[in-house]
Specification:
Elements: E1 2-11, E2 14-20, E3 24-29, H1 36-48, E4 68-76, E5 79-87, E6 94-97, E7 102-103, E8 114-117, H2 122-126, H3 129-143, H4 146-173, H5 181-219, E9 233-238, H6 259-280, E10 291-296, E11 299-300, H7 301-304, H8 307-327, E12 333-337, H9 345-355, E13 360-365, E14 378-383, E15 386-389
Parallel strand pairs: 3-13, 3-14, 8-12, 12-13
Antiparallel strand pairs: 1-2, 1-4, 4-5, 5-6, 6-7, 9-10, 10-11, 14-15
Bound molecules: adenosine-5'-triphosphate (ATP).
InterPro entries: DNA-binding_RecF (IPR001238), DNA-binding_RecF_CS (IPR018078), P-loop_NTPase (IPR027417), RecF/RecN/SMC_N (IPR003395), RecF_2 (IPR042174)
Pfam families: SMC_N (PF02463)
Binding site for ATP: 30-37
Length: 391
């Protein structure tokens, strides 16, 4: 698939921008702060309804404007769809597909798929478990948009249940009796949505793990077969169910995870930890407490990997996402935002070689020399609020 046309109004620094795009490689080049990332961020927003840089929509709307609009014409399998998203912080965002009636933003998920590489990605390896959960969940939604609903249902239930635990804890400390009947209802919801999300993540980890191992070997430009086992990259899902995770679910499995089995395990564990949960006023069990371990040999990349190895892991995760989505039947658009400036020469050219043949690659760079020669293609200069084609 590819984006044929992008138009933004009052998005970030842009009052208006209009960009005709083609399959193949397009580089947006311009000095710092000219708005290059803002443009690829808009493309990413159409695919994910979120930004890779901020958690809320407010910063996406140009200062002083009330709403931002992003329009993208997406070509997939010879068919073109026009997606229009209106971002109005504090109100419900709106979407339209092919100039039709107003739709829910979530209805556009799946029309455009992107895999975005950015300097912020280093935190997937080095940051808190939340960063790795976000990586997994975003890919999950990209593969199967219904998980956007599962995730938001889970988060809603978690919030309500945590508030209840907090007040139950306060009641108990004050000598009153906590109302635990409502808690049981919330346990049921948490286990239901939690099991769906957990099953989705476990299946995803099983599907992507081999791609990560081979992508890491490719980025590190070594032969996987001869690579010392201490340098082989692998993934392990660490569930807050711990030892209560049903047998066989700890390692990538050859079959799909069973939602009902996981639901029962979550319910059992919730019952077991309830006294601690009330004591501490927090939800201790569920996918919001899980982590994705990134391993080099037997050691976690976090805390052990060198800067270069950490970058190789990040690139491997993104490349693996690209291969997995392509294998699913919809080759995603690759977005490489300012990423080459972060890499040493060897990783830079490995990455360039590995993405050069993709259907569409959008690259941003502060200086043209940061774009590797393998990625010569269409070039735009981005300067003083204008995007001008120069090559
Ligand atoms: N909501 C907003 N309203 C107005 N301007 C904004 C908004 N959000 C960001 N900007 C401005 O956009 C500019 C940053 O744009 P962007 O991140 O796209 O730069 P860039 O060209 O990618 O630069 P770099 O090479 O440094 O990454 C900054 O000047 C910032 O002040």
């Amino acid at each position: 698939m590819y984006v044929r046309h992008l138009q933004v109004t009052d998005f970030r620094s842009w009052p208006h921008a209009d960009l005709a795009l083609e399959p193949g490689i397009t580089a947006l080049v311009g000095s710092n702060g000219q708005g290059k990332t803002n443009l690829v961020e808009a493309v990413g927003y159409v695919a994910t309804l979120g930004s890779h840089r901020v958690a809320s929509d407010a910063p996406l709307v140009r200062e002083g404007a009330g709403r931002a609009v992003v329009r993208a014409a997406v070509v997939n399998g010879g068919r073109e769809l026009l997606v229009e998203l209106e971002i109005t912080p504090g109100k419900a965002n709106r979407a339209r597909i092919n100039r039709g009636a107003a739709a829910k933003p979530r209805d556009v998920l799946g029309i455009l798929r992107t895999v975005l590489f950015a300097p912020e990605d280093l935190s997937i390896v080095r940051g808190d478990p939340g960063e790795r959960r976000r990586f997994l969940d975003e890919l999950l939604v990209s593969r199967a948009p219904r998980f956007a609903g599962v995730r938001s249902d889970y988060e809603r239930v978690l919030k309500q249940r945590s508030a209840l635990l907090k007040s139950a804890g306060a009641a108990k400390r004050g000598g009153a009796k906590a109302d635990l009947r409502t808690l049981e209802v919330w346990d049921g919801h948490l286990a239901r949505y939690g099991a769906e999300l957990l099953a989705g993540r476990l299946d995803l980890v099983a599907a992507i793990a081999p791609h990560v191992t081979s992508a890491y070997a490719n980025v590190a430009a070594t032969d996987e077969a001869t690579m010392p086992s201490s340098r082989v990259a692998s993934l392990r899902y660490r569930s807050s169910l711990g030892a209560s995770l049903p047998e066989g679910y700890g390692e990538p499995m050859g079959k799909e995870a069973d939602v009902e089995v996981l639901e029962a395990a979550l319910l059992e564990e919730l019952a077991r930890v309830r006294p601690q949960e009330i004591e501490r006023g927090v939800s201790l069990v569920g996918p919001h407490r899980d982590d994705l371990e990134l391993l080099l040999g037997e050691l976690p990349a976090k805390g052990y990997a060198s800067h270069g190895e950490s970058w190789s892991f990040v690139l491997a995760l993104r490349l693996a996402s690209y291969h997995l989505l392509t294998e699913d039947g919809a080759e995603p658009v690759l977005i490489l935002d300012d990423v080459f400036a972060e890499l040493d020469r060897r990783r830079r050219s490995r990455l360039a070689e590995l993405v050069a043949g993709a259907e569409q690659v959008l690259v941003t760079a502060a200086v043209a020399e940061d774009v590797p020669p393998e990625l010569a293609g269409v070039r735009y200069d981005v300067r003083e609020g204008e995007v001008r084609r120069v090559q």
